[in-house]
Each structure stands twice: as C-alpha cells, then as structure tokens.
C-alpha cells in the first residue's frame, strides 16, 4: 500500500465554494502536491521563470559588490486547472509513465533471459519473473483503488491546494462537474489498511 504523505510538507486543501479548509492526510493528494514540478503546465513553468528572473534583476540592482545567486523561489503563483470533460475522473491513463513501466518490465525480462542463456542458471530469471508477477498483482488489487481513490465524482466545487504562507504554488482545480470531490480524499487516513 502507498506510504503516507510526508510530514515535512503539510498543506491545505480549500473548498473555494464553501470556504472550508482541510489539512491533507491523503496519499493521493500528497503525490499530486509533491510531484507538482514534474506535471506542472508549461505556461505555469514559464511564468515562474519570468518571476524568478524579475526578482533576480531587482536583487542585483540593489546589490553592493557581491554576486547574487538566482532565487529558487519568488512570489505566489496560482495555477488554474480544469478537469477533463472527455476522460472519466479517477481512472488511470495510458500515458508515457505507463508505457515506460511496460518497457522497463520487458527490459528486465530480456536481461533475465540473457542471463539464463549465458549462465545456464534459472535463478535470476525466476527471481525476476516472480518479482514482476508479485508487483503487478499487488498493484491490481481492487483494495488499492478503494483505499486511495474512493471519493465522489462530478464535483461542482473548485478546490485550492497550497502549503500555506510562504509557499511558491497554489493549485486551483476548477469544479466543472467532471472532477473529483477532493474533500472526500483529504479526509482519508494517511495509512490505508
């Protein structure tokens, strides 16, 4: 089962419609927030770069003689996302990460077969195939989806995810009637049973 969200990064999920704020305990939303730099929209990334460059120029203007490094963080950037109206919310997509996983499995099996052919020792192949089968079986358990993504669909409410004061990003997810009710996820236990 998934590990709990990191206690080093507490953050809040606001329901913009009702005004309620919740401290996150969901592993799924924890990953959404933690991996934001990896899936951030290119327009948001470009805006952050422009904001950092502007802050850097301002810092350099008032610097005396020392070199000022480019700041890693600048003011708040609010990125707005809208759930897809064509894809079903909460279902995994066959994206580049999915296909990279399939390619990795095939590469591991190919290497294990080559080791079997060259070394005439079936242990490497048996360990590789057993580990792959166990990993795929564990990931396909129905309990996984129930515990990590059990929430209502078709949310009309917009949500804001933020780390609070001083954080770089606030992620707003519009409520267009096609997304997930993030409040249901936020209230889930950090340690699924």
Give the biggest beta sheet: 5 strands, mixed
Residue share in helix: 40-55%
Uncertain runs: 4-8
Instruction: Give me the Rg, rounded.
Output: 22 Å
Number of H/I helices:
7
Oligomer status:
single chain
User: How do the strands of the widest beta sheet line up side by side?
Assistant: 2-1-5-6-3
Q: Tally the beta strands.
A: 7
Distance between the termini: 8 Å
Average pLDDT rating: 83
By secondary-structure content and strand pairing, the structural class works out as alpha+beta
Sheet-strand content, in percent, reads 5-15%
SSE order, as H and E?
Answer: EEHHHEHHHEEEEH
Instruction: Report the principal-axis shape.
Output: flat
Summary?
With 193 residues, the chain is of the alpha+beta class. It has helices spanning 27-34, 36-39, 42-61, 96-119, 122-139, 142-148, 182-186; strands at 12-15, 21-23, 77-81, 153-155, 159-162, 169-173, 179-180.
Commentary on this structure:
With 193 residues, the protein is of the alpha+beta class. It is 45% helix and 13% strand. It is built from seven helices and seven strands, in the order ββαααβαααββββα. It has helices spanning 27-34, 36-39, 42-61, 96-119, 122-139, 142-148, 182-186, and strands spanning 12-15, 21-23, 77-81, 153-155, 159-162, 169-173, 179-180. The strands form two sheets. The protein has a five-stranded mixed β-sheet with strand order 2-1-5-6-3. α4 runs antiparallel to α5 (122-139). The radius of gyration is 22 Å and the shape is flat. The termini are close together. The relative contact order is 0.22.
